[in-house]
Design goal:
Helix content: under 10%
Low-confidence stretches: none
Order of helices and strands: EEEEEEEEEEEEEEEEEEEEEEEEEEEE
Structural class: mainly beta
Distance between the termini: 47 Å
Shape: elongated
Strand order of the largest sheet: 1-2-3-4-5-6-7-8-9-10
């Protein structure tokens, strides 16, 4: 995949698992990346002549050590996983303290902790590469490229319902959530919402009546303590008139990690109408931490 901005042309080569294995600027390969496992974080970097020039070592607490012939670089993150300071092999801090806006734009320079103009800054403890060749400013998030200046991905979400829309980043909650692989939003508890029958409302029919259904599952692997899922279905009755067809709130406490509501459904108006749903997912921890995000499903025409 190639990106051209002004006089700068940048090209990535990816392997069969979509990991970046080479980076070329102006048609010349300037870096190749090697991996020791099946993840997408490189463990060593080679130059265009295939000489190893760097090794990356992920340490406890999110610190990343970059080993170079010119001296090691230690990258220290904040609680969000953003690199805020670097130090040399002697432990001396290098440059100013780094900072970022909520969506990841650098506010105080860029760390020099990887080869070329491809470094680790925002979410750098997860080795999400910041491409800053020329005037390009994108972050590699696994399956997709993310633009911190826009707070949006450049490509369509490969997972239906992964966030509020096909280009959105973590339901516009970049402080409480992440999407490190470009597939689906995760909040501070690792929570996500997925869909049993697609994210659109669907028609349920029986011998007695028709109803509009909506299924969603709320999962939090890191067990926040309390989880709540609110599903509401709407119908469009005119250009400026919508009707709330019904809502249901589901709550889980006591240590569970998955909230799987019973099949929610509400009444279906006669005739053909446009329906959609909102899903609000909330999580609380005993120490007071709270996370909330909402999702508006695509609309669908249903005939009852």
């Amino acid at each position: 995949m190639a990106t051209t901005q002004g006089a700068t042309t940048l090209r990535y080569t990816r392997d069969a698992t979509d990991r970046i294995v080479a980076r070329a600027v102006g048609g010349a390969t300037v870096a190749r990346y090697g991996f020791s496992g099946d993840g997408d974080t490189p463990d060593f970097t080679l130059d265009g002549a295939n000489n190893v020039i760097e090794r990356d070592v992920a340490l406890v607490g999110g610190v990343v050590m970059t080993k170079r012939s010119g001296g090691d670089v230690w990258s220290y993150p904040n609680v969000h996983g953003d690199v805020v300071a670097t130090a040399n092999a002697a432990g001396t801090k290098q440059g100013a303290t780094l900072s970022y806006d909520p969506f990841g734009s650098a506010l105080a320079g860029t760390a020099d902790n990887a080869a070329g103009n491809y470094d680790y800054g925002w979410l750098g403890s997860h080795q999400r590469g910041l491409e800053h060749e020329g005037s390009i400013a994108t972050i590699e998030m696994g399956a997709r490229q993310y633009v911190p200046g826009l707070g949006r991905f450049l490509e369509v979400d490969p997972v239906e319902g992964g966030s509020a829309n096909a280009y959105d980043y973590v339901n516009q909650d970049p402080v409480g959530g992440t999407d490190l692989d470009g597939n689906a939003a995760r909040n501070q508890f690792g929570c996500s919402v997925d869909w049993s029958d697609g994210d659109r409302p669907y028609l349920r029919t029986s011998s007695r009546h028709s109803r509009v259904g909506q299924k969603a599952r709320f999962s939090c692997p890191r067990n926040p303590g309390k989880m709540r899922l609110t599903i509401t279905v709407y119908r469009r009755k005119g250009w400026l008139w919508t009707e709330n067809m019904g809502s249901q709130r589901y709550t889980l406490t006591g240590g569970g990690t998955t909230l799987r509501p019973r099949d929610f459904s509400t009444h279906c108006a006669g005739g053909t109408h446009t329906y959609w749903a909102t899903v609000v997912a909330e999580a609380w921890a005993p120490n007071g931490r709270y996370s909330r995000y909402s999702y508006v499903t695509p609309s669908v025409r249903l005939t009852c």
